[in-house]
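Dear Dr. L.,

I hope this message finds you well. Following up on our conversation about the binding site, I have prepared a predicted three-dimensional model of the protein together with protoporphyrin IX containing FE. For your records, I am including the exact sequence and ligand specification that went into the calculation, followed by the structure tokens. Please feel free to forward this to your student if that is useful.
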Amino acid sequence: MTTRTEVTSGAFAWRRIHSLMGLWLIIYLLEHLIVNSQATLWLGDDGIGFVRLVNTLESLPYLQVIEIVFIGIPFVLHGYWGVKRIFTSKSNSGSSNGSKPSLKYGRNRAYSWQRITSWILLIGVIGHVAQMRFLMAPKEVRTDSEIRYVVTVKNDPGLESVAKRLNVVLETQGDDVIAKAKSPGKAFLMMVRDTFKSPMWCAAYTIFVLAAAFHAFNGFWTSLITWGVLLSYRSQKAFLPICWMGIALLAFLGLAAIWGSYWINLRN
Ligand code: HEM
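The resulting structure of the complex is given below.
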């Protein structure tokens, strides 16, 4: 039989694991968005910073193990307990006919948005990984003398000149174009450019990035309460602008990567 103390300490431990994994995911998110923003931020350099960083990451030994241990498992642990928390908590900032509270204060709204953004992140991350890590990701093709990283893209007026500058070979196959690059970084850049030339994908990823930015730094604020760092009302209030700056920074990096990798930096 489970005693009350066991239930409580289990929940306590899970709460801490959830919080630690959330904090770890913020660090990963920052790293990920810094790398991606390099596809855009140094205008006119053809995303060479992105290519260099992706090549470095792709050259790490045991990359798949690293991805599972440092990204997959923290995400699953945080997401598992997050979903459980959502089903056992009640937001109280929505509209009401008087049968439940309807508190329109900033922190009550943030509590609700933390939960709404959880769903966007859960669906968004699964979709993003399926799309960019598996379905569209470059395939490694080895011949006796060379290795090429191959992606399938759609033709557009600027494709040829961008491919020429990046030293990527193009081969037309029906409606598609097969891009063959000498490094994984360049192949990933071609894939990112191809995705974000669609305004629909830009819009979907905009919602995803804004949700992630809010969830991460609003979560950072609540985590400082979880760990007893922000206890007084004054300290909690004083720290809010810092979290908004964190949200703005993540949003800027993410939106730069989405809207800049084709529409600003690599269109022609
Ligand atoms: C980019 C991915 C994510 C990051 C960076 C992240 C980060 C965080 C952080 C730092 C916290 C604060 C923890 C605390 O208060 O101690 C948090 C809270 C939370 N997260 Fe996430 N999270 C992510 C994805 C998810 C997903 C996919 C879900 C569930 C579907 C989720 C559900 C929650 C919930 C429900 C809370 C609020 C817990 C509470 O108020 O007690 N998160 N998140």
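In brief: Residues 19, 22-23, 25-26, 29, 78-79, 82-83, 85-86, 114-115, 118, 121-122, 212, 215-216, 219-220, 222-223, 226 surround protoporphyrin IX containing FE (CB under 6 Å).

With kind regards,
A. P.
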